[in-house]
Specification:
The structure is a homodimer of 723-residue chains. Chain A has 18 helices and 23 strands. Helices cover 33% and strands 22% of the residues of chain A.
Chain lengths: 723, 723
Amino acid sequence: MRNFSYILGLVLCICVTTFAQHPGLILTKTGVMQIKSSQHPPLFAKSVKNAKSLVDAAISQEIDVPVPKDMAGGYSHEKHKTNYKEMLYAGALYQITGEDKYAEFVRTMLLEYTRLFPTLGKHPAEKSYSRGKLFWQCLNDANWLVYTSQAYDAVYDYIPEAERDLMEQDLFRPYADFVSTENPQFFNRVHNHSTWGNAAVGMIGLVMNDKELVNRALYGLPLDKNAALAKDNDGGFIYEAGKAKAGFFAQMDYAFSPDGYYTEGPYYQRYAMLPFMVFAQALNNKRPNLKIFEYRNGLLPKAVKALFYQTNAVGEFFPINDAQKGMSINAGSVITAINIAYGATGDQAFVAAASMQGEVLLDQNGFALAQEVEKNPNQKFKKESVELTDGKDGTEGALGILRSGAGADEMNVCYKYTGQGLGHGHFDKLSYSFYDGSTEVLQDYGAARWVNIDQKAGGRYLPENKTWSKQTIAHNALVVDGKSHFGGKYDIAVDKYSTPVYFNVSNPNLQVATAKESIAYEGVDMQRTLALWKDEEFEKPLLIDLMWIASDKNHTYELPFHHAGQIMDHSFEFEVNNPKVMGTAHGYQHVYQEAIGSLDKPMWQLGWYKDRKFYTITSTGNIGDEIVLARIGANDPNFNLRKDPFVIQRKKETSNTTFLSVVESHGAYSPVNEIPIQPYAKIQSIEIVEENNNEITFKISTKTKQWLFKANKQTGNLSKIKQ
Amino acid sequence: MRNFSYILGLVLCICVTTFAQHPGLILTKTGVMQIKSSQHPPLFAKSVKNAKSLVDAAISQEIDVPVPKDMAGGYSHEKHKTNYKEMLYAGALYQITGEDKYAEFVRTMLLEYTRLFPTLGKHPAEKSYSRGKLFWQCLNDANWLVYTSQAYDAVYDYIPEAERDLMEQDLFRPYADFVSTENPQFFNRVHNHSTWGNAAVGMIGLVMNDKELVNRALYGLPLDKNAALAKDNDGGFIYEAGKAKAGFFAQMDYAFSPDGYYTEGPYYQRYAMLPFMVFAQALNNKRPNLKIFEYRNGLLPKAVKALFYQTNAVGEFFPINDAQKGMSINAGSVITAINIAYGATGDQAFVAAASMQGEVLLDQNGFALAQEVEKNPNQKFKKESVELTDGKDGTEGALGILRSGAGADEMNVCYKYTGQGLGHGHFDKLSYSFYDGSTEVLQDYGAARWVNIDQKAGGRYLPENKTWSKQTIAHNALVVDGKSHFGGKYDIAVDKYSTPVYFNVSNPNLQVATAKESIAYEGVDMQRTLALWKDEEFEKPLLIDLMWIASDKNHTYELPFHHAGQIMDHSFEFEVNNPKVMGTAHGYQHVYQEAIGSLDKPMWQLGWYKDRKFYTITSTGNIGDEIVLARIGANDPNFNLRKDPFVIQRKKETSNTTFLSVVESHGAYSPVNEIPIQPYAKIQSIEIVEENNNEITFKISTKTKQWLFKANKQTGNLSKIKQ
């Protein structure tokens, strides 16, 4: 945060004199001057070029502002989305290039909307708990206002006053009222939907200098204490107990932990971050006395950084909870958030992020960032290992991220001991995913959903999201007696969280995270220690995975490892059968057993090949433990699931026990040169040397070397024993 | 071949005076002068740098020339391979840099081999029909000699004469005799193995100026007419009827068709091409009067071009017959072949290839090619659509390649109506694969093999290669009565080929290839017309696939389409069951039926998603035709197969019939922006309007447009009817 106070000071001194100036909402008059007076750095020039090609194409077509009719994916829905994006770019281009055609495009389109809006009732589709006007849900209407208020601000001085008055009277004010006072169940929640609503109302209020709207955005509508505990379309409660505030400040108080973690996870955070950051930028420009970027110890920039840190080597978000895989920091909302966060802090982490994104905003933040990227075009930024607490006070579990290396070679462990994650949460306490570069060594399945793809249930969550993706067996998490955590019941799980025990990443060669969970299964305590271990004997860091389980009673314990690779070798005998469905509920109804073996020695190994690289898991086991080679895909009548293979270690009739594994990344093979590099694991065995209620000592061996480790159950520490 | 005569003339005039000069085998004295006197173009500089880093690392280690012991993948095998590659680079670096350390490295290593060789009997592994000395098979020994003769030539003048005499007496001459006179079953075949043998003996002969060895290489050993029809390790005959010659000229006479097609397919051609080209280059330098590059109308450069043309948009070979997927023009052997072919012809196709390869040889050819690439760094070369005849006289079937677009957007259809392809052939007459950029829209499965991967049967062909990969059902080819072509019997198929009927690519908007096959199934004639059709209504070209079948008797016809994608939508109802193994032989023992439907209208559609793009097949059908959604992977005890899905259209109790499909590439979806672009096919229906014994008229319709096509069974032509 080196430049934080400097930049903030600069912004303050500029803005005091320019509250009512246009543009002044996001892009400022001073910003325009800077941009016009300097050579454009390559990244900025590229972004201008892209915007021009988009808007010029739109200008060459006839403007269409269709009567609302379709759901997401349909014509009217997508057209209104395209329209607001084109207006946003056109407004910025008008300021940057000074060409009137861009302002004229925005003006003409706004007049069309001004004509259409008063004729509209609610959207004909009756699918949302808060139906919109242009769109099927208020959420999209709020999106429209957030973008369009920026476009309006950019061309404000171009539009004749009489037309502005008409627009404000027939379009902007009634639209702001619609998404707020007329839809309190949308506007007054503590939820990402409401953040969009708050930002929409606040931003158009700032452009029109309407203090009442701005206050409504900041502090919400009066709360209706008698509102029922209704649920929204995602199954979350609309109003939650104990959250006694509304409006933008309430969102900031409740949505993030003090570390900037967003309880639904990064997939939803990248979407929610945009209204937080653009409204904050607008407030910073127009209401600098609020010191919005400093609120809660600089929470907003911290949250953007936390978001960037929840990515793998290529910037894809860890797909915890309901998340469509592949979503990354290259999403438009994250580009916006990173640019604004950089403007607020000057933190170099955001320069690295922008470098990966390859795109910047068309404003003073984007310009400054592009200049930085030009100075350091190829920097390999080492993201830190971090523990991000969950819950508004940081007391409801955490997400632990262990990482090593930088750039495309980064290795990441995303260890989840958070709260439930509201309606989008999965039942996967103490689960993790493990990445080697962009390769998922052990995957989190993510959501069963094709966002916006009409063929797949209209782009909504698929039935298999509930029956498979959310279930415990779909994760690298312990299943007890064939049931998901909390019995897979949201109402029970919603306020539960795991307990962080130990997190120490001060030694880059042995980074350790430990957490425990005692509520997911009644009468079963589990504690898992993950360690990212680096040793010169191995090309890449290894993952040590130690899980301790204690119970008074006997149970069946099943620990899945979702490798999703091509099996190369295995240390144990197994019998292959025709695929057999493994169960009827808790996700097992979607799993085929393809083979089963039983251990005849206290160890097993399985090697697989994936993305041209080799991996091996080496685990301890008890004689008689079963190893199941399984595959996703049973009872999938619409072919909605990916039929990925995984392996399950099963212990029957066991009370207290320990699962111990080490996962090794050990080689590569290219079909072009056909030369395998180290296709076999170096690790030959793993062995528990001594174990009691407090400690475990174990040995990892290659052909020529041995290492002794000790893990402490009380402290959660894991350390190497010098020999 | 613009520069052909110019370059040839230059080479001639240089070489006449330099037959006995060193270096003069591949890299020439004149070449060294050119390289030393000019600025290195970037590609050449990069290749020099890579070679230096490899050899400098080797020089810093102790030289190891181990006693032969291991199979492929094992230490001694891989070490001897590494040694000859290091010597090759070191020799070239000595010439280019003038640094003695490189020559000294080669000299020292050669002395080690000279010491070791006389002590060697045959290699201890008894796995080959022609066991080697340093390696388990003579083939690798020949590799060693081909590379090492170049290294020896490069440092010839550096090594004291007495040491040279020793090397030639104890190592090179006896080694040349070993791979020829002592192993006639290896040396005297018409086969890629023997080409390596011929090149090895000829090249070391040229360096030593040993005419007897050179003649042996060119014309072979006297033929043993009584040799039995023994088979080699791949199941091919060692001696074949009617091939009455041996030696390098015989290879050129028999190995290629006049179009430069190699009957085993491009995967094996890319390997075989190296000894052809390096020996030819050596002959062109040392025996220019042979005019080797002009032999058979310039066959060798033509074959290299044919090889380049048998690739998809990213340079990967069409994996017909036994081929490990992913093998591409980036393989070292193809870099060598392309460089030499460019030197012989100056053809710009090779410049485009070198640009993709990103690497050149360290000689005058590589230098000239790198200069060309520097001049045109980003050219998008449009590979032509071609029909490559098969058989030494070009009369034994052909491979038809239809393509459109250039660079990474290239679309390719590889249509196979060749001969069997010897021991590596698959039973897949009239099959094809279809590519959209690097995406396999409809795949050829390729081989079931992990080359050099010890875990998978020591890197040899897996049992499933025979039981699955070679079978007809594993291809986009017609299966009659559940049996593979020729009953899956190699001895029957070996000399059979399909009949090319029509090939016309003069209209870039409708390129057509037709072939027929009447022998694969007794009493069943099949003729297939494939057309790559471009129309402004569609973003990308479409594939039209028309198959006519005639028989006197009723049969079950099954036509598989190997999409290997995620199913998105389907026009027909189906019933999903637990996976059911589809048969017991001819590949069906490896297939699960996942769902089955029966047509209740004369058309069906299936859409899938793959590599972030959407595809749909629209096909005609008869009421009652069955559509099976199938998956590879049954009876696969070692998890050797990729469990890819495909679809089968089945017609029961049918004699004459027609299969007609159109495959549409129609959209894209990125999980980053989550905006689907045209996720549904534009094509709504396909309909046969009229059909008789000679002709078929069919209609393809979108919502707003229609096209009529006419196909002629006699001529094989397919044309659009103007409306």
